Recover the amino acids of this structure.
């Protein structure tokens, strides 16, 4: 009886004591260090974009990014979907601009660290990416001739452009709107131009993308509670650890780099390998069949604005990602790019088609890893509800302040 | 402290590569002895880079003019490298440049070289733990 009383007292004591701090092995601390934002290397060079790090290009790009005149109807800027207060994405399952696209808007935070762009990697540089939506009928819905004319007729743009790239092509003889991806009339007007005119427009259009990319390269995630936690762990600062992450978040972190295997693909300081994975998402009846990377890689290879193309500033030998890209294999079918998890919690929905409204739903998907017809890379994780909740709590620790 | 100071992301690598670098590895049928070395050392995830492969006969004679195919695989995940590496140059003395190596996930990888020289085909597989 006395022993039982003693045990009860001990148990009661345990209940009111704070949870013991998670001890990390040296190997685990190395993984934490690899995820720490301080481990982010300098921005990778973009050899295809000669003005990638020119402050004048950053300023021109910033102006272009927020200018709704870069659209077919004068109302859609890049920031329409890449909204600064929402981590440079929106909160819609599929992006909505002039029309509705088939996929979720991707964040621009840390995008410059990726070798491939869009969920299917159909572009191989940030500057080439920026050109895609400008001419997509469902997005900006304009044409390259229209955009080059805008720059040529706006004093601020014309001056900024010529400072960076030399004079714009003469636009007086060009139609109001023409481009190879436009309406039938716009395509016909494009075909009617001389080859020299098309080349000059293409070059100026590419420079628009390079200026926008220079701005987008400045959009980087900022330190989050997780980063303060890692610093506290490395410093042996128990109070700092407790201030940065709750016990539940700490448990979630352990799962993230352990049992739940999230870190396998969500690796490095941006919590993303920016490569392509079939993550077992069955087709959605309401959306067109999306073959993901297997289609995107062919588009990247045939893109006139790719690293090896005429409008790239890159020496061919620097285009290793494009030259040695994988083009075949089942694993490319319905494979989509791993997105960064930095600032992930604030703005759902999630996945390439925005099918999950909450992080809980995402985690449930990975936990179940249910079979789909074409197979996938996942294995069921066997997480309990409490473990799933801890992971979700941890993901909230990856949100830092947003850049302007 | 510089927040963006470059720090090696994952350091745990390649004791296998290191040992292979010293002793080489015999091919499946014993025809060749292959040695690999990475120009990116240590190998970090998500960075495209080159390797140099050395091919010798089992007796240690350098093998020139070999046709070499590269296959990377992650056995636990049923997929391979995100790239399609190629042997792009013979550097002499049995050395070959392998361009386009890139590992996108931590875990166990196998990299297999299928080597054909003078009509003799054999393969050698290296296991890496990244």
């Amino acid at each position: 009886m006395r022993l039982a009383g003693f045990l009860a007292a001990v148990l009661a004591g345990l209940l009111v004591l704070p949870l013991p701090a998670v001890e990390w092995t040296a190997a685990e601390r190395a993984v934490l260090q690899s995820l720490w934002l301080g481990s982010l290397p300098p921005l990778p060079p973009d050899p295809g974009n000669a003005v990638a790090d020119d402050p004048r290009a950053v300023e021109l790009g910033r102006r272009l990014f927020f200018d709704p005149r870069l659209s077919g109807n004068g109302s859609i800027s890049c920031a329409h979907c890449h909204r600064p207060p929402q981590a440079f994405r929106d909160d819609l399952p599929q992006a909505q601009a002039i029309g509705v696209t088939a996929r979720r808007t991707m964040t621009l935070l840390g995008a410059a660290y990726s070798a491939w762009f869009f969920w299917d990697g159909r572009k191989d540089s940030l500057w080439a990416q920026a050109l895609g939506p400008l001419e997509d009928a469902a997005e900006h819905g304009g044409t390259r001739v229209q955009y080059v004319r805008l720059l040529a007729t706006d004093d601020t743009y014309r001056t900024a452009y010529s400072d960076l790239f030399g004079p714009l092509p003469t636009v007086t003889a060009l139609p109001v709107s023409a481009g190879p991806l436009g309406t039938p009339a716009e395509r016909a007007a494009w075909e009617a131009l001389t080859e020299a005119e098309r080349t000059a427009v293409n070059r100026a259009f590419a420079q628009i993308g390079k200026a926008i990319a220079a701005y987008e390269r400045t959009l980087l995630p900022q330190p989050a509670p997780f980063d303060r936690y890692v610093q506290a762990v490395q410093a042996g600062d128990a109070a700092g650890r407790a201030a940065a992450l709750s016990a539940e978040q700490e448990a979630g972190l352990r799962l993230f780099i352990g049992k739940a295997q999230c870190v396998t693909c969500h690796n490095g300081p941006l919590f993303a390998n920016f490569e392509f994975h079939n993550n077992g998402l069955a087709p959605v009846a309401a959306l067109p069949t999306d073959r993901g990377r297997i289609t995107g890689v062919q588009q990247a290879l045939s893109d006139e604005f790719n690293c090896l193309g005429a409008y790239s500033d890159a020496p061919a030998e620097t285009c290793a990602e494009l030259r040695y890209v994988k083009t075949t294999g089942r694993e490319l079918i319905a494979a989509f790019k791993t997105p960064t998890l930095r600032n992930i919690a604030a703005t759902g929905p999630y996945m390439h088609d925005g099918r999950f409204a909450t992080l809980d739903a995402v985690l449930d998907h990975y936990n179940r890893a249910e079979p789909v017809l074409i197979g996938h890379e996942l294995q069921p994780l066997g997480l309990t509800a409490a473990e799933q909740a801890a992971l979700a709590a941890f993901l909230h620790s990856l949100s830092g302040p947003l850049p302007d | 402290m510089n927040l963006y100071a470059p720090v090696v992301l994952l350091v745990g690598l390649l004791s296998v590569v290191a040992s292979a670098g010293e002793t080489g590895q015999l091919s499946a049928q014993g025809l060749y002895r292959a040695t690999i070395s990475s120009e990116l050392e240590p190998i970090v995830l998500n960075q495209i880079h080159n390797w140099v492969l050395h091919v010798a006969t089992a007796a240690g004679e350098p093998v020139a003019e070999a046709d070499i195919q590269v296959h990377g695989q992650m056995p636990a995940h049923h997929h391979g490298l995100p790239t399609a590496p190629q042997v792009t140059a013979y550097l002499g003395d049995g050395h070959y440049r392998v361009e386009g190596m890139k590992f996108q996930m931590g875990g166990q990888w196998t990299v297999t070289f299928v080597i054909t020289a003078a009509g003799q085909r054999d393969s050698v597989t290296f296991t890496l733990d990244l």
In short: Confidence is low (pLDDT under 50) at residues 12-18 of chain A. The interface with chain B takes residues 27, 30-31, 33-34, 37-42, 115, 223, 263-265, 267-269, 273-277, 320-321, 323-327, 329, 331, 375, 377 of chain A (CB under 8 Å).
